[in-house]
What we know:
- InterPro entries: IraD/Gp25-like.
- By secondary structure, the protein is of the alpha+beta class.
- The protein has a single domain, classed as Roll (Nuclear Transport Factor 2, Chain: A), CATH 3.10.450.
- 29% of the residues lie in helices and 31% in strands.
- The strands form two sheets. A three-stranded antiparallel sheet has the order 3-4-5, with helices on one face. It has a two-stranded antiparallel ribbon with strand order 1-2.
Amino acid sequence: MHWQPALQRPEEYVCGLDDIHQAIHIILRTPHGSDPHRPLFGSNLWRYIDYPIERAIPHVVRESVEAIRMWEPRCRLLKVTPTIDGEHLTLRVQWRAADGVINSTEVLWR
């Protein structure tokens, strides 16, 4: 069984599907090179933070797909769908767990 401390709730932990949801958040919010023990861990989403949102979308989706496929082997990635709300971009990550159920994780990128 996989588990990890819950983010922003240090007295709790997450496991199962909640662990995968949290892992996806961590993968997408961690810049490459920021984990000294795993310098390739994370994503390159930070590179596109100052791009106009319409130009950033294809890069952000590609980087998200590559990072999740690389670092979260417990799920099969189905798609990453961007949603624009003004200057904010939310990524909806749809994935299938080993039990076959389709899940969705939303990550506010900017």
